[in-house]
Specification:
heterodimer; A: alpha/beta; D-Maltodextrin-Binding Protein, domain 2; 2 domains; 4-stranded mixed beta sheet; two-stranded antiparallel ribbon; 6 strands; 68% helix; B: alpha/beta; Rossmann fold; 4-stranded antiparallel beta sheet; elongated
């Protein structure tokens, strides 16, 4: 135990003391939101300043005010299609929308076709949908108008519905739930695990490889059992990841709180005021409303449960994959050689992240339940499911299987590791690794 | 008294036998040479003693006790394939390696300081290993091996890559450690250092021990009754107890010949006969070097 701790301490201290660790740890929570903000900012900015021109050849004359002018600049032209196409190319316009005459008939026709968009480059899906929507809306309006219905009646027919969802526990207690927030939390935590496996798995592998290539390893294993060395290394690198995560949580939590209180004004003052003068609370500005909404939403989530589960699955995933990365590092002489062995490890991780989107869509479906039980995919998939509510027996089974899973991979990795670290310049393939696995020392 | 004994140690790998029924006994406070060509099985035996791998059969005892994890701190091991953490500072590195051998940090700090002073590396303590010259790094490796003051030092090709100055420095340290009570197992295929250092040797070839004993006994047993004589005059007329193998003229009137004596002839018998024939300037018995013996046996084993 003491030996494992000594190895762990070295791995931890040498990493945490590095400047690159400090930078990544402190800058990531600051830079990431800034990057996201910048992308959103430029995207909206670009949309606003967009001046792509679309020529509209409208033979029916129905559509002269149909289009949303924020998406494109529309210019209505007359003439035949062929000359319009030439015009479009000459003017360097983005596209040509050809709207042939439509026969509305007696009002029972619902399929309209023959509308065409010509462009030099492929239009985006969004642009196509927007144009389609504009045409459809216009045709609907015309048909409604023709049917003689009163527009105010029609407007009153369009209602807005707000469906509140609640999770109900065995004891009958109802807890307000929020699908969007669940999605965000499920996605976020799943993605964090995914990211950490890759980043810290690679670090374990590099660390094993460094000891092997610097030839220190034989000195070390004359004092420490290879399995202790491997465990110390895996735990030490893991502790670094854990520290980083903790700092991120504190920083993001801190920044988030500061951000919310800026949005809502000084919340303590506001609360006091709203108690004294209830009607004032009704006059919240939209920003304050938003902040209050966010606070209320967060209150609907079982924060403690999610955090505890996240810690468990984070560590489980890390140990399970970390062991495999350590085994690969011990088997090869260079990072290049490692590539061929990485593939089977990466597949379940990538599969998890891809399946996560389907799981978030149907968190209690067969695929979701199955993948959240298999140890290789369960950390990411279970984290995606937990915010939506998971039956206790599934959570318990998944945890037990994951514990079994990482004990299994640690054991297997240990068997390869003890031989691999002392093998230099051996051409390694899966068969050799299998041989090492069964070899007695 | 033997500090370490290996009895009938055998180790098999899938494709070959690495050690076949090898037994050696290493006397306390000696410098023991474990010799053999590359791939003979020396490193396998050393790894078994270090409990890095386990033997398939046979047993090893240290101070009369069966090999167990407690012995790890009794051994200091300098492997042939050796290195250090490049990005780690010298002092921290030595501390880490000492602690792994069970040395408390306070004691380790004191010893690290003493050793760095002794080998003139004090000002490098805070430097990273990658900033050190190769010679300095090797001295650090040596310090790491001996810091916990082990009873048994196992040095696998300790001088490979050392310049002569550093090699001598380390040699002196090895002698000093031996005088203080340590036993040194010294594995090499370079015979010149064996000649200087070792009291006892064992020769391993093709997984088997083919020879062991004290250096003196082994050399004596390989004497072939040859003598080199420097003389004035002519050797014509020597009795048939002797053969003259070759003769060369050294100076104008001085010659040198190698003489092979028949079995049972003492040096005095030869001298007597020589004096009656020639003017003897020097007379030396040819004692085989360990290198000669080594080559003789290894090549002989091939045929």
């Amino acid at each position: 135990m003491k030996q494992i701790f000594l190895v762990l301490k070295r791995e931890y201290m040498t990493r945490v003391k590095k400047k690159s660790f400090l930078l990544a740890t402190i800058l990531t929570p600051l830079v990431m939101p800034a990057i996201i903000f910048a992308i959103v900012y430029f995207a909206t900015q670009e949309k606003e300043s967009r001046s792509d021109k679309v020529l509209v050849l409208d033979e029916s004359g129905y559509f002269n005010d149909a289009f949303d002018v924020t998406s494109f600049e529309f210019e209505y032209i007359t003439g035949d299609l062929e000359s319009a196409k030439k015009d479009m190319l000459e003017q360097g316009a983005f596209g040509l929308l050809y709207l042939p005459n439509v026969d509305l008939g007696d009002g029972s026709v619902i399929d309209f076709s023959g509308f065409e968009l010509y462009s030099k480059t492929n239009p985006s899906v969004q642009a196509m949908e927007r144009l389609e929507g504009d045409i459809r809306n216009k045709l609907e309006d015309i048909k409604l108008d023709k049917s003689g219905l009163d527009p105010t009646v029609i407007n009153n027919l369009r209602v807005r519905v707000d469906l509140d969802s609640f999770n109900i526990s065995e004891s009958g207690e109802a807890q307000k739930s929020n699908a969007k927030l669940s999605f965000a939390i499920g996605y976020g935590t799943g993605f964090l695990i995914y990211m950490f496996i890759f980043i810290y798995g690679a670090q374990i592998m590099q660390s094993v490889l460094d000891e092997k290539t610097s030839r220190i390893v034989e000195v070390i294993v004359s004092s420490v059992r290879p399995f202790q060395l491997m465990m110390g290394k895996v735990l030490g690198v893991g502790a670094v990841g854990f520290t980083q995560l903790l700092i991120w949580f504190v920083l993001i939590g801190g920044l988030g709180t500061v951000g919310l209180s800026i949005l809502s004004g000084d919340s303590a003052v506001m609360e006091a005021a709203s108690q004294q003068v209830p009607q004032e609370a009704m006059e919240l500005t939209s920003q304050q409303e938003m902040a209050a909404d966010i606070q209320a939403m967060i209150a609907t989530v079982p924060v403690v449960k999610i955090l505890l589960c996240f810690l468990f699955f984070f560590m489980g995933a890390y140990l399970l994959y970390g062991a495999l990365y350590a085994a690969i590092g011990s088997a090869v002489d260079s990072i290049q050689d490692a590539q061929q062995f990485m593939f089977p490890i990466i597949i379940p991780i990538i599969a998890s992240i891809m399946a996560m989107f389907f799981v978030l869509d149907d968190p209690n479906g067969g695929l979701a339940v199955t993948l959240s039980l298999i140890p290789f995919t369960s950390p990411i998939i279970m984290m995606a499911r937990i915010p939506f509510g998971v039956p206790d027996w599934q959570l318990a089974l998944s945890m037990v299987l994951l514990i079994g899973g990482f004990i299994g991979t640690l054991w297997m990795a240990g068997r390869v590791y003890r031989i691999g670290i002392l093998m230099y310049g051996v051409k390694v393939n899966w068969k050799t690794i299998g041989k090492w696995f069964t070899m007695k020392v | 008294m033997n500090i370490l004994e290996a009895n009938n140690v055998t180790k098999n790998y899938a494709a070959h036998k690495a050690l076949d029924d090898v037994s050696i006994a290493i006397p306390k406070q000696s410098i023991f040479g474990l010799l053999g060509p590359n791939g003979a099985g020396k490193t396998t035996l050393i790894r078994i003693i270090n409990q890095i791998i386990m033997s398939d059969a046979g047993e090893i005892t240290i101070k009369g006790e069966k090999l167990n994890p407690k012995h790890i701190k009794d051994i200091g091991y300098l492997p042939e394939e050796r290195g250090l953490y490049k990005k780690m500072k010298v002092g921290e590195q030595l501390m880490y390696l000492a602690q792994l051998k069970g040395l408390p940090s306070g004691e380790a700090r004191k010893r690290i300081k003493n050793w760095l002073d002794k080998l003139g590396l004090t000002e490098w303590s805070g430097k990273k290993v990658e900033d050190l010259s190769k010679g300095m790094a090797q001295k650090i490796q040596f310090i790491a091996t001996v810091l916990h003051e082990p009873d048994i030092l196992i040095l696998d090709e300790p001088f490979s890559g050392f310049d002569p100055v550093n090699a001598n420095l380390i040699k002196d340290e090895i002698f000093e450690l031996r005088d203080k009570g340590a036993t040194v197992i010294f594995s090499t295929h370079r015979m010149e250092s064996v000649e200087q250092l070792c009291d006892d040797i064992a020769l391993i070839n093709k997984s088997e021990k083919i020879l062991d004993g004290t250096k003196k006994d082994i050399k004596n047993s390989f004497k072939s009754g040859k003598y080199v004589v420097n003389y004035k005059g002519s050797l014509n007329g020597l009795s048939n107890n002797f053969d003259v193998l070759d003769t060369a003229s050294v100076d104008d009137d001085l010659s040198e010949s190698t003489v092979q004596a028949k079995e049972g002839q003492s040096p005095n018998d030869i001298l007597k006969e020589l004096i009656s024939l020639i003017e003897v300037h020097s007379f030396v018995e040819v004692v085989p070097s360990i290198n000669d013996i080594f080559i003789d046996i290894v090549e002989g084993g091939k045929s």
